[in-house]
Fold each of these.
Amino acid sequence: MKSHEVDYKIGGHDIQYVEIELDPQETVIAEAGAMLYMKDGIDFVTKMGDGSEPDKGLFGKLLSAASRKITGESIFITHFTHRGTGKSHVAFAAPYPGTIVPVDLGQMGGSVIVQRDAFLCAALGTKISLHFNQKLGAGFFGGEGFILQKLQGDGMAFIHAGGTVIEHELHGDSLRVDTGCVVGFQEGINFSIQRAGNLKSMIFGGEGLFLATLQGTGKVWLQSMPISKLINQLSPRSSNSRKESTGGILDSLLDG
């Protein structure tokens, strides 16, 4: 199914939103609960499927819903359609502080792989499916990256990342990254998990036990503040640990 052609603008700074402009009978799909506002003429309905395969039967829709449940997303996707005349608009907000990245799937070879909570919204015709990383180590050791989502189509899709987005273009080289900082990459990029240096570095380096390695040719999107790291920093346990650590250092200095 050919994707609907939609225009858009992205606004905001720390917490961004994307406003989609729809012509009559154009549709955009979005994560349940992502809608910020909609203007006259916009009608919405919640469905189990993404609408990319309208002939898919009930069993196919159930499989699609089950795969979304595995990724930790809602089993439902909301479809927003302009039923009026002229042009109208619907806007979607990012779920936490960060950046919205517009991705033209047609220019990305028809598909991109993104982390399981990165998808925000897309033009109708975009297929959202489960993508398992071939490297089992990515799931067992990396904490991220084993269960991913694949976005397929020829239209616009919008993904969300925490903090600032850094875009890299790989040309047969490789990039080593904190496992939680990978937002997405073009299909064809090899994604694997490797040990973070020697045993001493792994235990005391503070960079985690494993790092993600991205290798190949294509675009890679990274985020400076993944939601897991933000939650860690804001949690009482993390705050207490920092206080205890600081107190221990001060005690040592005073004793010395």
Amino acid sequence: MSQQPVLLVVAHGSRDPRHAATVHALVRRVRAMRPRLRVETGFLDFNVPSVRGVLESLAADGGSGAGVRDVVALPLLLTRAFHAKADIPAVLREAPARLRVRQADVLGPSPLLVRALEHRLYEAGLSPADKPSTGVVLASAGSSDPEAIAVIAEIAREWRRTGWCAVRPAFASASLPRTEDAVRELRELGCAKVAVAPYVLAPGFLPDRIARGAAGADVLADVLGPAPEVARVLLERYDAARLPAVTAVGA
């Protein structure tokens, strides 16, 4: 009987222990939502197990000929930038030959992620009634990839249409404006409150920079982390990658 592909969640990794802890919490939520799905986690750097190590282990599991054959590798990324376009495909091309590995799309953009951002803001003290008087800084890690920057700007434009006073993108690295600059702009615009919504998945160096930049804001939301909406997006991307139309990496 054929098995469904293993879901391999590919995380960047970090020296900050909060990063791996958050990734594992998100993976636990995914497993709870789909108990019969085998979900593994691999890191590109800093943490173990490595992506390469997980792939080798999966191939060894199937050494009898009846085990793992198909893997869907899902980048735990919010935009398509360097890691999704170069790093991850390069690692997946080195997978053992007996495995058929398909790379799923990145998580963003998705309406579910915007919903998760709003829930984090409400957890931080806002309510839906605050939307017309509150300006929001959509604070991402940043990228030198123009496609990734354009996606963040478009999310901000679309999110503004849901009733916020204003929404401005900001970046912790590589691009401008910085979080503190966007906070200042929203103050000057006349928004009664200013909130910062980190569009990042886990704590770490750049999210900490976002938090420092939010010092002048009224509200700082938590990172997306293991939000149920994020877990749902993971499963959506996994299901889409299982379709026959998706080309195997290196094919």
Amino acid sequence: MNLVSIRIITDDVARLVAFYERVTEVRASWLNEDFAELRGASATLAIGSTRTVALFAPGSAFPADNRSAIIEFLVDDVDSAYERLTGFVEDFVNEPTTMPWGNRALLFRDPDGNLVNLFTPVTPAAIEKFTRSRPHGSPR
């Protein structure tokens, strides 16, 4: 099994796509007005309108209702990302902090309240873990 995508359901696809394009510096691919994808080297962040929920199971997902998942992105320099996003991100949960497991992490909320973590491995063990787990030839 291979995790390929995380999908966020939202009432405002354009707003959330614009937010994640700015955060990730990745251009979204729009399939239609209700669905867009930001494709990374190892996974895709999909953003779908509440209108798409009925295609799966009506009432099975609700926008701006997540309080358990964190969307995480590996970045080259979390401190630089923090500087770049200051003034744009409205809800920082913490400033860059080195975690006990060796990642320097920045936690904030997207416009729908979903938690987003940008992190950079900084200890030798964390660096080794993410160097080993990256797909061959993928950017760091």
Amino acid sequence: MVDHSFADLTLASLYDTINPWGPDDDFYLDLVRTADAVLDVGCGTGRLLARAAEDRHPGRLTGLDPAAAMLVQARRRAPGVEWLLGDLRTRLWNGEFDLVTMKGHAFQVLLCDDELRAALRAVRSALGDGGRFVFETRNPAARAWETWTPDRVREVTDADGRVVRVWHEVEDASAGDRVTFTETFESCGWLRRRVSRSTLRFLAPEALSGFLAEAGLRVVEQYGDWERGPLTATGPEIITVVTPDR
């Protein structure tokens, strides 16, 4: 789950513990391994490109993230990768990449139509001939936010051995395709708990396809899960592979 709270250095160091490597990472890593030049938008702690670098990826690996604290983690783990602070509104490329990724449901932080259109235009510009843009968004029909409740508390251990409790609580799910929620982090070793507030956008497949087509991007594959199963009405994910529409 993407969360702006991880701009905090303490929380950024916990990100990979709270969100361990999983099938989604394997899915994207397979794509990165076959691409010569990769741009990972919203790269976070950089673990995807860092793993590719560990595997001696021979091409260009570029990570982009707006949170400096996350990039501190990325630079520590893979100093040879190109790590850039910013987002798709502040950086401009022209056909330099054959793969652009946007994992960890980062696509859902693009809330406004204009913001989404600008991001997709930037992706379209960054892709070379035959390039692919791959991302995922939660299927709104699966209503994942209904499980984001305070009774579902997770416990993780930080670098100093302290137990940190983490939970979510939805504030508003009535605003069309947007859901606003809080994420709370609490530890007896901290002076205070940390609470962040975020909003995510849940686009239905039809609306998503419309924005992509408007940006000159054509859907070539869509999956409903990380095993490349078919997109279904209530499956958890909308995993999308697009290419420039020539």
